[in-house]
Predict the structure.
Amino acid sequence: MRDQADKLRQMVKNSSRSNTGSIIKSNSHKARVITVTSGKGGVGKTNFTVNLALSLANIAQNVLLIDADLGMANVDVVLGCSTRYNMLNLLEDKVSLPDIITEGPRGIKFMSGGSGIYELANLSNLELQYIIKQIALFDNWADFILVDTGAGLSRNVLNFVMAADEVIVITTPEPTAITDAYAMIKAYAGNQGIAPVNLVINRVMDNEEGQLVVDKLTKVASRFLGQQVKSLGMVYEDRNMRHAVKQQNPLVLSYPDTISTRCIENIAHLMLYGNPVAQPRGIRGFFHKFLDMKW
């Protein structure tokens, strides 16, 4: 144990002056950490998150995408790429930060959280210090860090939602999806969440259908929860999305001119130019808050 502790101390010391290659740039801003979640599965959350990341990258934003879905992690499937490691592997010999990152299309970077994120709570303070110090280097590179959570209202999912700078709740016009989205917003408000909550309505048939859902959720959340929810927009039902999933190639790459791509690109522009966050805490702040949550 002493040898292991000595080794970790040396790793922490070395990490402060290590060269992580092309991942890190020399600026000092903090990334906006955004958790993308939903009250239930099957609403297109992961597909939306991946295509949002690519749309942000297309307007010159550096994006890190973290798959934090423990049970059904499939960001790599949507991206059509794979990764050998998750963040916990940083504690292993000869595994460095670039090793746990997969380079995706348009320069986005992908990291598998997997079970490694949940096991962070069981690590020693020294181990945590080392991992968080490494991951925090992304604050000097990324403009946006998107965290794709699992579906539902488990404690783990809620912890990710509570720790973020911003929250995006995805739903569809289906009554059960609307009910579960409201349940997520209610759980967030009940835990005194303070980050902005945004809403995206997926798979709408027309603008009227989407606006009805927006009006219903925003008004009910405000009236009964005292929670302000802002609409980021809606994404139309599009058969090309299903084709893209089968091809394991993201929609915005496979079908750049289709209606759903234009919808997601509009949301990316709104996030960048019309939905600023005053003081993002960055990935270091995100993980510190996440680890302070009750499990």
Observations:
- Residues 16-22 have pLDDT under 50 and may be disordered.
